[in-house]
Design goal:
Length: 251
């Protein structure tokens, strides 16, 4: 397992940098997490699936906010024109017809009350901390690092390709309509990651910037991994649900 913390003094070619970035995903993306494996094996209870959907909503809801923070710092109009598509994808034209609304549809389709999900008050503390850290990172680090952190989208078609067929096949209460969030995501993620990767390869033009870009992607993978760690600890093993967090019997 690489720690990805030692770019050669002379730096990397664009092709070498891309190889390293893709290797980060191959070793650290959360499709490798045990919670994901339980999901795709059909071994999660409905309550555990609900906990996943409720907590993941916090992440989905922050995406347009972190993208707005990136937009606010970008001086290139062409960059802004491309990047704002991400906000439109998640918010929709009216604020509630995009990806966030479709994720809420997934959560309510699993039996959760919409207001409980939208309030985020039942999310795990670790989820809120991880999501907040991601927003802070994108608002305060360099534009290159913020863009590089989004490169987990390079790997999202893989996890969607594993998750969606397994959920439809192994959970009789899951329907294709409930999972409509995922219909557009592979195409959107491919478009967005192509643009972000090209940006990173162009602007990570020193060893220091290359290392910063790699570290940003590692950080983002850690955010997603930490969210599943928290779910595993609270709802699978050992089952320690923090005070105030989602308990199936109370919703």
């Amino acid at each position: 397992m690489n720690d990805f913390s030692n770019v050669a003094r002379g730096g990397l070619s664009a092709r070498e940098l891309e190889t390293v970035l893709r290797q980060v995903g191959a070793e650290r993306y959360h499709n490798l997490h045990p919670f994901h494996h339980l999901m795709t094996a059909g071994l999660l209870t409905k309550a555990q699936m609900q906990a996943w959907a409720l907590n993941r909503y916090c992440y989905q809801a922050v995406i347009p906010r972190k993208d707005a923070a990136i937009l606010a710092r970008a001086e290139d109009p062409a960059f802004r024109a491309e990047w704002r598509k991400r906000i439109e994808d998640h918010d929709g034209e009216d604020g509630w017809s995009g990806g966030i609304a479709r994720w809420l549809k997934l959560a309510t389709g699993l039996g959760l009350p919409a207001e409980a999900v939208k309030s985020e008050r039942l999310a795990l503390p670790a989820t809120r901390f991880a999501v907040g850290a991601y927003l802070t990172f994108c608002a305060n680090r360099t534009l290159l690092e913020a863009v590089a952190s989004s490169l987990t989208e390079l790997f999202s078609p893989v996890i969607i390709g594993e998750r969606v067929p397994a959920m439809l096949a192994r959970y009789d209460y899951v329907t294709k309509d409930i999972l409509s969030y995922f219909d557009k995501r592979p195409e959107q993620a491919s478009r967005d990651s192509d643009f972000a990767l090209a940006y990173v390869l162009k602007h990570a033009d020193t060893p220091e910037r290359q290392q910063a870009a790699i570290d940003a992607l590692v950080f983002k993978c850690d955010v997603l991994w930490a969210m599943l760690d928290a779910l595993m600890h609270a709802y699978v093993e050992p089952g320690h649900i923090p005070p105030g967090a989602f308990r199936p019997e109370t919703v």
